Amino acid sequence: MADATHIMNDIETLGTGDDALILSIGAVKFNALGDFDSFHMAIDVDDAQRHGLTISARTVLWWMEEDKADARRALLALKRHPLLTVLDDYRAWYGEKSLPTWGNGATFDNVIMRSAFRAVAQEAPWQFWHDRCYRTMKSLPGAPKLKRAGVHHSALDDARSQARHLIKIWQHLGFEDTPNG
Q: Where are the beta strands (DSSP E) in 32-167?
């Protein structure tokens, strides 16, 4: 079996634009057998704003909705770190080799993370040709439905749920191991 390692990113933000302020990054390394390593850190909001990342009032109001109470509690329980520290730690966790890197939407997680890396004068650790869109895969006809585990809108819980769901989609498509990058 030639299981290639993939990365599933999930971020929680205070906006939806390319330069949105990231509250937390959750990510897992995974292959056809499941997820096997994880990353989860929260970012200091003031520090992120100093780097030019932006906040949307509409997204702040979304976070204040009653059904986001568990996600807010989970987020507020995390220690917050400077943006550069989080991105450096993510890069160290990610490793030196570019891997297929998934985000939930072609224009969301990976794009916003690339903007954050640019804000601190760094490149994302994956090459553009390794960008993958989980949202596209989950919308394929006949794809199994997502079964969430953990707290919805906790970056790490969402990354794990999405990786496990993607594996089920691959199995549905007839892949016996992880598709290579």
A: 34-43, 80-81, 101-103, 131-133
DSSP 8-state class, residue 170: H
Domain spans of the chain, in order of start:
6-172
- Mean pLDDT, rounded, for 44-49: 98
133 vs 58: CA distance, rounded Å: 25
- 113, 11 Cβ separation under 8 angstroms: yes
CATH number of the domain at 6-172, please? 3.30.420.10
DSSP string, 8-63: EEEEEES-SSTTBPEEEEEEEEEETTEEEEEEEEEE-HHHHHHTT-B--HHHHHHH
CA distances for 158 relative to 91, 103, 110, 128, angstroms: 20, 11, 15, 23
pTM above the 0.90 mark?
A: yes
φ/ψ of residue 2, rounded to 5: -110, 65
> What's the average model confidence in pLDDT over 14-33?
97
**Quick one: pLDDT at residue 2?**
47
In the chain, the N- to C-terminal Cα span, in Å, equals: 15
